[in-house]
Design brief:
The chain is α/β, with parallel strands linked by helices and 284 residues long. The chain contains 11 helices and 5 strands.
Length: 284
């Protein structure tokens, strides 16, 4: 059932892409709006491509919350797309009305993607997470245009208040339980946390699921942070771009490795504001 849901969603992305491309032609005499519509179309095309990359034999089982089993929900989205084509054909179509169509489509798309996110059960969900990053970028594109568009305040608020599809995952590793607990308290507002005092456990977490940020000490008895970093990027190369060493080490080999690999590092102790700013930077 999961593959059916992914296929259904990808087909809707294709239809919305085609609609946005047609709308760009319709508004060719308004270059800024036409360019915006073409950007949305390209993003929708990428969404369909990324969704189809998620089709796997292990996803053929029954989903947890099966939207495809609810014909009303499915038909509601399909009817909205059909109605949007009729609106696009209207002789009196204005930019404001087209913006309303876009927001309606994005709301419908967001709701079905939210259900897909709830259902996702792949062990290694890095590809799924990267797809959601693209969806978030798409929402931001719509939001930014509405922010500067005349008379679009209400539409902007509708898009701006959409709940995130994904809660960020953060992996924290420090052999000192007090520091580990302190980081857990500080980082809780930023997302879902996995906290461990054992580097080997951290690697096991990485094998099981995708993380958006990893924070680690360097000087640890079982495995130092340098080796942990090296093992982590073998499991997930992307985590190297979102890695933070929180450490008091003065070991020259450690410092040399950190500098050569351009790894973000904060010296213990660090104040709360600095830690929060570092986390915001890594998540963005």
């Amino acid at each position: 059932m999961m593959n059916q849901q992914i296929n259904w969603q990808a087909e809707r992305e294709d239809e919305i892409e085609a609609l946005y491309r047609s709308a760009a032609v319709r508004f060719a005499m308004q270059p800024e709006f036409a360019a915006f519509l073409l950007t949305l179309a390209e993003q929708e095309r990428e969404h369909g491509k990324l969704l189809r990359q998620l089709l796997r034999p292990e996803n053929a089982g029954t989903a947890g919350v099966d939207q495809l089993g609810d014909p009303d929900a499915r038909q509601s989205t399909e009817k909205l797309i059909a109605a949007s084509w009729l609106t696009l054909a209207s002789a009196s179509l204005s930019e404001q009305r087209m913006l309303e169509v876009i927001v309606q489509l994005e709301f419908s798309e967001w709701n079905s993607l939210f259900l897909l996110t709830m259902n996702w059960s792949g062990q290694n969900d890095g590809e799924f997470r990267r797809m959601l990053d693209e969806i978030e970028l798409h929402r931001k594109t719509v939001e930014d245009y509405l922010l500067q568009a005349a008379g679009a305040d209400e539409l902007y608020q509708m898009i701006h208040t959409l709940a995130p599809l994904w809660k960020k995952r953060i992996l924290i590793v420090d052999d000192d339980p007090v520091i580990a607990r302190l980081l857990e308290i500080i980082m809780t507002p930023f997302g879902k946390l996995e906290v461990t005092t054992h580097p080997a456990d951290a690697l096991q977490h990485l094998r099981q699921r995708h993380f958006d940020v990893m924070i680690s000490d360097v000087s640890m008895p079982e495995m130092d942070g340098i080796e942990l970093y090296q093992q982590a990027i073998k499991l997930d190369p992307e985590i190297g771009k979102h890695f933070l060493f929180f450490t008091a080490t003065n070991h020259q080999d450690h410092l040399r490795f950190i500098a050569e690999n351009n790894i973000l590092t904060l010296k213990k102790p660090a104040n709360l504001k600095v830690l929060q700013e570092a986390m915001t930077s890594l998540l963005n």
